[in-house]
Amino acid sequence: MALIFSTDRLLISHLEAAHFEDFLKMNQDEEIMKYYPNLLSKQETIDFFDRVNNHFKQHGFSFYAVSLKSTQQFIGCTGFMVPTFEAYFTPCVEIGWRFQKEYWGKGYATEGANACLKYGKEQLKFKEVVSMTSVQNKKSEAVMQKIGMQKQGNFLHPKLDQAHWLSEHVLYSIEL
Question: Which domain holds residue 20?
C-alpha cells in the first residue's frame, strides 16, 4: 500500500490493483451509484483506474483509496480530480468521494475529505477546491457543508442531457 496520509481512523493511499474488485463492486451497486448516470461495467472501471493513474502522473494528485486503519479494509475513495468538461467555474480542482454503503453514516467521507483538504492546502498548495453533485444527492451535499464548503449555486452538468433527471447540479467551493 502506497500510503499518502492518514487520519485517526483512515489510511489514504494510491488506488491500486488490489482495490479493483472492491471498487468494481461499488461501481455496480445501484444504491451507491444512484446519483451517477449509470453503473460502470468492468471495462469502464478499468478505464476509470487508468484515468486516475494518468491523472496522477499528469497533475501529482488524483482519487485515492480509503482503508480502515484498524483492519486495512478498503472502504471507498476520496481525492481530487480536474474536471474534463467546460463550465463557468473550470478549470478547477474538484474533491469527491465514493464509499461502500456499509460504511455510510459513520463520518468516513467527512473525515477523509477533511484530510484531503488539509493535504491539498499544505502539500499540493491548492488555493481553492470545488465539489459538485446532483441536486438530489443530499447526503453528498451534507458532506460538502460539513467540511466547510460554501454553496455557489446550481448549474446544468454539460455532460448530461438537460432533460436527464441528474442534470441539475449544486456547486460548492472552499478557499484553502
Answer: 3-175
Q: What CATH number is associated with residue 87?
A: 3.40.630.30
pTM for the whole structure: 0.95
Please provide the distance, in angstroms rounded to a whole number, between the alpha carbons at the two ends of the chain. Answer: 28
Total domains in the fold of the chain: 1
| 63 vs 95: CA distance, rounded Å | 8
Where in the chain does DSSP place strands (E)? 3-6, 10-14, 63-68, 74-81, 94-99, 128-134, 150-156, 168-175
Q: How far apart are CA 2 and CA 106, in angstroms?
A: 25
Averages of pLDDT over each 10 residues, the chain, 176 residues: 94 95 96 96 95 95 97 97 96 98 97 98 98 97 98 97 97 98
Structure confidence at residue 1 (pLDDT)? 78
pLDDT value for 137:
97
Question: Which set of grid coordinates corresponds to residue 92?
Answer: 478547477
Q: Which residues contact 37 (CB under 8 A, 6 or more apart)?
A: 160, 164, 166
The three-state secondary structure class of 144 is helix
CA distance 46 to 166: 24
Q: How far apart are CA 98 and CA 15, in angstroms?
A: 13
